[in-house]
Design a protein that fits this description.
The complex is a heterodimer. Chain A is an alpha/beta fold. In chain A, 44% of the residues lie in helices and 17% in strands. Chain B is mainly α. Chain B is globular, with a radius of gyration of 19 Å. A two-stranded antiparallel ribbon of chain B has the order 1-2. Chain B has one domain. Classes of the chains: A alpha/beta, B mainly alpha.
């Protein structure tokens, strides 16, 4: 009798101990390959790197972090399948992922139904507006990109612009947002062209914009290889009005692909791209420089804002788990929602039940490509 | 207005020349073996990716290009020897499925051997745009058009004036008769695959500086080349060229004057239209069966 009791107690203690040692499973589905690879690849690398570092420093709540990630290749269908797998088979505690808007939106219904916190790394405002209980995001929205660009255009007295966008979720969303907020900034969109996802020649669309009278600048809403080709075609056609891109091209890969044509292109982006050029008293400087040194030291590859989004997502989740004191999904969700004053690569994050992103325009910088590198526009 | 038209026309001719080269590859293999080789697009990809790989490794561009074309030709020969020849007696549908499988395999190899990133290739003679009647042209477009023209002339000399070329033509007209005339049909088949692969590779290399290259460019280019081949008449050399150029121009005009978002759909709408109304294509021979 006593022996059975002892055995039972030992088993109970053993199970408690193993429960405490059970790793915190962070699920991720990212576009590591495919047309959004230069967004997803740094995101994957960042998650791996920082989970490794966190584990080396003792983990979170005494437990190790375990990354379960899949390559959704920019495909919304695959994203949905992998998210389902993460939730049902791998039984992850939360998800950080969804490189592109299309992939993120495909997963929203699943995540809401399963009741699991999901921090998206995609751009479109539709992800958090209308606000969804379990869905959060780290990058600035496409609407903010439009606003930041229009602010810069106002400064340069630009009033009439041409718009060219792709067919992806983010592209279409950003185009819609720019059309909506343009009147507020007294900017008129006099030409509006579109190209397909895999298109390799946009000279037709740009020619039409070029021939529209009074165009003072061109805005390209998109990411991936499309904007690189638009940029090259832009130079080929000899269009010498300013070209603006979205934060979807905030990676050296864009400059590599577009080559000389990228000189003078402006885009809104997170401060992390110009980390070392930030003034000494900038609040973001320590985080930005720290991320840059850590990532580049390990991977010998230049950073991009996308890896920064993943860093912010992971750190916000980790802080939330610490505040919640457990991995209980509802508690973690509440903790994420009450994130205040978190300094990330994107800016200072202050979330509320109605704002699941928490960033404003203050830390969204305007950059210009000069001599193949990023320069901060004052 | 006409400067705009000219711009669209030039864009259409450039990409049309590429479609023409890919379509020629389809035509040559179809002629020699009645097989529609759906791995044709992958030869285009191999040409571009191999050149980028070698150029990045330090090879001078001309050497990288030559080596890449050779590599593609070898892959074409291997495809024929290992995949098509063993299945010689199988039905046409089986052979087509085999080539589709081969294309998937080649794409997989490309991601393992190279990577899944998008790669630019340096333009052959710079990127300074050339003004031409109000439109602008990239020097690379001139390369595309020039090399395609040279290849077309070379091929017509090859098929018309050399014994080997005539043997290839003979095999395409009547395989049994060609065998009886002493032509080694096996070698002819190998040659057709190698030649088509080389053509595809050249197309891939020419277009890479303008459109970048990656492990999966073969899918779309292969399908569009196939559409061009059907448009011109499957199996007809001149048809392939005409089909390619016409498809390129229609695409560019469609994007410019109708809707730019549906450019890709144009090629496939054309396939459907041709198969419905004019199955033998623009220049193909009407096939007649003895009843």
């Amino acid at each position: 009798m006593a022996r059975q009791f002892l055995l039972g107690a030992l088993l109970a203690i053993a199970s408690l101990v193993t429960q405490a040692q059970e790793p915190i499973r962070v699920g991720a589905f990212l576009a590591v390959t495919g047309p959004a690879a230069f967004l997803g690849d740094p995101e994957q690398k960042t998650l791996e790197l920082y989970i490794e570092r966190l584990n080396a420093a003792g983990g979170v709540l005494g437990r190790k972090l375990q990354l379960v990630s899949y390559d959704s290749a920019g495909d919304a269908e695959k994203a949905r399948t992998f998210a389902k797998r993460l939730i049902e088979q791998d039984k992850v505690d939360l998800i950080v992922g969804g490189t592109t808007t299309g992939e993120t939106m495909a997963v929203v219904a699943l995540v809401e139904q399963a009741g699991i916190p999901f921090i998206s790394l995609a751009g479109a405002v539709v992800i958090i507006e209308p606000v969804k209980k379990w869905v959060f995001k780290t990058p600035h929205t496409d609407r903010m990109a439009c606003e930041r660009i229009f602010l810069d255009m106002r400064g340069r007295k630009i009033e009439r612009i041409g718009l060219i966008s792709g067919s992806g979720g983010f592209d279409k969303s950003m185009r819609g947002e720019c059309l909506k907020v343009a009147p507020t900034y007294r900017v008129q969109i006099v030409a509006d062209e579109a190209y397909g996802g895999g298109d390799t020649d946009m000279t037709a669309q740009l020619t039409k914009i070029k021939n529209t009278p009074g165009v003072q600048a061109v805005l390209n809403a998109g990411f991936g290889q499309g904007p690189a080709i638009v940029t090259k075609n832009f130079k080929q056609l000899g269009m010498n009005v300013p070209l603006y891109q979205s934060h979807g091209v905030a990676s050296k890969q864009y400059i590599q692909l577009a080559g000389d044509a990228a000189e003078g292109v402006r885009l809104p982006a997170a401060a992390v791209l110009v980390a070392e050029k930030l003034p000494a008293d900038d609040k973001q400087r320590p985080v930005a420089v720290g991320y840059k040194k850590t990532y580049e030291g390990r991977y010998k590859q230049e950073i991009s804002t996308f890896g920064g989004h993943a860093y912010d997502g992971l750190m916000i989740a980790v802080e939330a788990i610490k505040r919640a004191g457990s991995t209980d999904k509802a508690k973690v969700r509440e903790a994420i929602e009450s994130t205040k004053g978190f300094i990330g690569t994107g800016g200072v994050v202050n979330m509320t039940p109605r704002d699941h992103m928490g960033l404003d325009l203050t830390h969204f910088r305007m950059l210009e490509v000069r001599k193949g590198d990023w320069a901060l526009v004052q | 207005m006409s400067a705009q038209f000219l711009q669209f026309l030039l864009a259409g001719l450039t990409v049309g020349a590429i479609y023409a080269l890919v379509a020629l590859g389809f035509a040559i293999i179809y002629n020699a073996s009645q097989v529609i080789n759906f791995a044709q697009g992958e030869f285009v990809m191999i040409g571009g990716m191999a050149t980028v790989w070698l150029a990045n490794a330090g090879w001078p561009l001309p050497a990288a290009i030559a080596a890449a074309v050779l590599l593609a030709a070898l892959v074409g020969l291997a495809l024929e020897k290992l995949a098509v020849e063993p299945a010689r007696g199988a039905s046409v549908v089986t052979l087509i499925i085999i080539t589709i499988g081969a294309s998937i395999l080649l794409r997989g190899f490309a991601t393992i051997f190279w990577d899944k990133k998008i790669h630019p290739l340096k333009a052959f003679s710079g990127e300074a745009p050339i003004q031409f009647g109000g439109a602008t042209l990239l020097p690379q477009s001139l390369w595309v058009l020039g090399v395609t023209l040279a290849i077309v002339l070379l091929l017509s000399w090859f098929f018309g004036r050399t014994l080997l070329g005539k043997a290839l033509l003979a095999t395409s007209h009547n395989r049994l008769a060609a065998q009886l005339a002493g032509i080694n049909v096996q070698h002819v088949l190998l040659l057709s695959f190698g030649l088509s692969a080389a053509l595809g590779a050249v197309a891939g290399i020419l277009i890479a500086p303008i459109t970048f290259t990656a492990w999966d460019v073969g899918v779309m280019l292969g399908l569009k080349g196939f559409a061009a081949a059907i448009l011109g008449g499957m199996g007809s050399g001149p048809g392939a060229i005409v089909g390619g150029l016409v498809l390129g121009i229609i695409e560019a005009m469609g994007a410019g004057y109708v809707s730019s978002a549906y450019k890709d759909a144009i090629a496939f709408v054309i396939i459907l239209a041709v198969l419905f109304f004019m199955p033998s294509g623009l220049l193909g021979q009407r096939s007649a069966d003895r009843v």
